[in-house]
Design a protein that fits this description.
Blueprint lengths: L2 H13 L5 H13 L5 H28 L15 E2 L3 H8 L2 H4 L3 E5 L6 H14 L4 E5 H13 L3 H8 L4 E7 L6 H14 L4 E6 L6 H5 L2 H13 L1 E5 L1 E2 L2 H8 L9
Parallel strand pairs: 2-5, 2-6, 3-4, 4-5
Antiparallel strand pairs: 1-7
Helix pairs in contact: 1-2, 2-3, 3-6, 7-8, 7-9, 9-11
Length: 256
């Protein structure tokens, strides 16, 4: 192998801003020299190595800025222990076609059924497939919006929250919103309406959102936009956390 030519090729790859190949080109050339295949196939394989590494780096960056508290994968979700979402429906969600259509997804049900797992799984899948996502709990969201309003940058914050392809808001309904918080939440939903997808989890039925948001008019206006293009999954079953505690004898079993 001509060392001078290898160094020249490495320099050229670096000048083209290739990140992976400059450090592995010698190994690649050595392996290719053992094969008998057309030059175009070798070139294609070489570029595939760089593209694959670039995609992995981009996915890691998207995951980092998504603020996901932990990694959850859709394929690990157990559909056998509950009603409301099937393996077929999860597979359809995993296609991420709802993001392309700018539809919303809502997972509704009591605690311990895996709503957050599904939400995080969709965000992770989106990041791996080239979409941007951003995660907040409902309380984090209203806290950020309130601070932005106090600092006179509310519109800028709303614009920032409209940028991700997928905005994930977890735990809606665990705390009632004040009038101002409900208005800000509505503004976000209205601004993302038909422009970007949202995935939400809530322990409240839609009939309870007037209590959650403080008044019927704001709740109706919010749900009107949120549910116009949406997929709603109402989860039912036993809490897996409580089930594990019962199994381990930490919580008495109810025999009624």
């Amino acid at each position: 192998m001509n060392t001078t030519m290898v160094e020249q090729l490495r320099t050229q790859l670096e000048e083209l801003d290739f990140q992976f190949l400059p450090n592995s080109i010698e190994t690649f050339l050595h392996e290719e020299s053992q094969k008998e295949r057309p030059l175009i196939e070798s070139l294609t394989s070489m570029l595939d190595l760089e593209i694959c590494q670039k995609r992995q780096r981009s996915a890691k960056t998207r995951l980092k800025i998504s603020r996901l508290p932990q990694v959850k994968r859709l394929e690990d979700f157990d559909t056998e222990r509950m009603e409301g979402v099937s393996r077929k429906q999860i597979k359809e969600l995993a296609s991420l076609s709802f993001i392309a259509r700018k539809d919303n997804v809502v997972f509704m049900g009591p605690s311990g059924l895996g709503k957050t797992h599904l939400l995080l799984g969709l965000c992770h899948k989106a990041c791996m497939e080239g979409y941007t996502s951003y995660f907040l709990t409902c309380m984090e969201l209203v806290d950020q919006l309130s601070k932005a309003r106090q600092q006179g940058r509310f519109r800028n914050k709303i614009k920032a929250l409209c940028k991700p392809h997928l905005l994930a808001i977890d735990e809606i309904g665990y705390h009632n919103l004040s009038h101002e918080e409900a208005q800000m939440f509505f503004q976000l939903v209205a601004d993302r309406y038909e422009k970007g997808s949202m995935v939400l989890t809530t322990n409240k039925s839609f009939g309870q959102w007037s209590e959650l948001m403080g008044e019927q008019a704001v709740a109706t206006a919010t749900l009107d936009r949120l549910l116009h293009h949406s997929h709603v999954y109402i989860l039912k079953g036993d809490s897996y956390r409580l089930k594990n505690r019962i199994k381990n004898g930490l919580v008495p079993r109810n025999n009624n």
